[in-house]
Amino acid sequence: MARVIIGYAPTRRNLFSAPEAVRYADLTRERLRGLGVEFVDIDGIASDGLLHDDSDRMRIEEKFREAKVDGLFFPHGNFGTEYQVARLAKELNVPVLLWGPRDERPDEKGIRARDSQCGLFATGKVLRRFRIPFTYLCNCRLEDEAFEKGIRNFLAVCNVVKAFRRTRILQIGPRPFDFWSTMCNEGELLERFGIQLSPVPLPELTREMEQAAKEGAEVRETIAYCREHFEIAVKEEELAKVAALKVAMKKLARRYGCNAIAIQCWNALQGEIGIMPCAANSLLNEEGLPVVCETDIHGAVTAVLAEAAGMDEARSFFADWTVRHPDNENGELLQHCGPWPLSVAACRPVIGYPLAFSHPGAVEARARGGEMTLCRFDGDNGAYSLLLGSAKGVEGPYTKGTYVWVEVKNLKKLEAKLVEGPYIHHCVGIHKDVVPVLYEACKYLGIQADLYDDNEDQVKGRVCGYDGI
Question: Cα 178 vs. chain centroid, distance in angstroms?
């Protein structure tokens, strides 16, 4: 599971009860510990353990920066000091979570001790003035289920933002000539989002494969793993090339500090090494290093986002939207030559031959069904967005490659989005509901969330906790 550290900075205002604010800050600390949340506290800086003083705020900033916190949590134990929250958030530039506990009934004299909700309204406005995106968890009690879900969603959002901002993609070869749809603007990705590409030519890959075969140990381990987990329908020397390719790509990714790979999987590669890279891609995908096909840089970014949204607990799969289901009006075939990870398969996969090529090294397996999220980061003409929504696996006819038939709410609407753009026929799937997390993360990434299910109010409600779940 991914490690996410948040900066915990409960706040108060002097007009309301300071003891009540301290009490709720301590209760919230205990609740976070009970949920297993890793956080950096401010109780060693502020005398009351609360954010409301500017000199404290500067020392808190230094402490959080030194700890490299991935997000900030500002519980409002009473009304809160909104400008201190904004100043601290502006300097640290990480996701921000606002929340306050439900206020109690006024006492017999009509006195209210906290007015936490009112303070949240004020803080939200000031954060907007500072142009700071933030996540809001609706006013609820610490023991409410909405609190736990809101905290866990926020941790996942922080993980997405962290992964996105650190993304460096190993680009193995240029895109195939015929795939104009996978072209990207490398300079714009760097300037807008800080996403870096590390391009390497195919001869560098083949040299690394030769070195891996010469050293031998990792290649032999990979061959043994394949024999244990796959049916093998290729020759011994072809399987050895699959293993060498997997080892070589992993070493290149480490050398260039990359957290994803986009490879030119055809057709120059076959002239260089004589195999398809699909099985090697599958092995790396299973290890949590996303590899996508046809040098689809935007596809690699999508895979990074999906796995980070799932807190690295589930593997993603890279697929083509291909053909309509022959019997289900909202059904579609998701398929590719074989890069899907082992944990996605509903049966024992086969390392064999692909649908459209004659070279060995592809994987065949039907993926398991169930609920999943489908998404695609893409852009053109200077605008970027993330298409996302839900799907469920359904029964359908056998086809070659790694595949799954899925059903969506309205396929015709989705089909129009894919054609009209800025998307293409590639997507990333993950067997986990991460739609609310990805939707919320988009505000921090500077991209537009594009929900193909047309259910924005429902998704926002699941982020904020106002739908009662």
Answer: 29
For 25-167, list the strands marked E by DSSP.
38-40, 71-75, 96-99, 135-136
Under a CB-based contact definition with an 8 Å cutoff, are residues 264 and 173 in contact?
yes
Cα–Cα dist 419/424, whole Å: 7
Q: Is pTM, for the whole model, over 0.90?
A: yes
E-strand stretches of 1-93: 5-8, 38-40, 71-75
Distances 190 to 96, 164, 302 between C-alpha atoms, Å:
24, 12, 16
Instruction: Sheet with 196-200: list strands edge to edge.
Output: 196-200, 168-172, 260-263, 291-292
Backbone angles phi, psi at 51, to 5 degrees: -95, 115
Strands (E) located in 21-120: 38-40, 71-75, 96-99
Which segments of 256-294 does DSSP mark as H helices, in order? 268-273, 278-286
Residue 372 φ/ψ, nearest 5 degrees: -150, 165
SS3 241: helix
Bridging pattern class, strands 168-172 and 196-200: parallel
What pLDDT digit, counting tens, does each position of 351-390 carry? 999 877 889 999 999 999 999 999 999 999 999 999 999 9
Using DSSP, state whether 9 is helix, strand or coil: coil
pLDDT of 469 > 60? The answer is: no
Q: Cα–Cα distance between 456 and 332 in angstroms, integer?
A: 23
**DSSP E strands: which ranges in 277-418?**
291-292, 316-324, 331-336, 350-352, 362-366, 371-380, 383-394, 402-407
Q: What is the pLDDT of residue 466?
A: 78
Let me know: does 95 contact 161? Beta carbons within 8 Å.
Answer: yes
5 DSSP assignment: E
Task: Tell me which residue of 266, 253, 221 sits closest to 240, measured CA to CA.
Answer: 221
Average pLDDT over residues 137-156: 94
CA dihedral of 133, 135, 139, 142, whole degrees rounded to 10: -140
**245 and 304 Cβ atoms separated by less than 8 Å:** no
| Helix, coil or strand: residue 135 | strand
Which region, left, alpha or beta, applies to residue 316 given φ > 0 means left and ψ of -120 to 50 means alpha?
beta
Q: What backbone torsions phi and psi does residue 136 show, to the nearest 5 degrees?
A: -115, 125
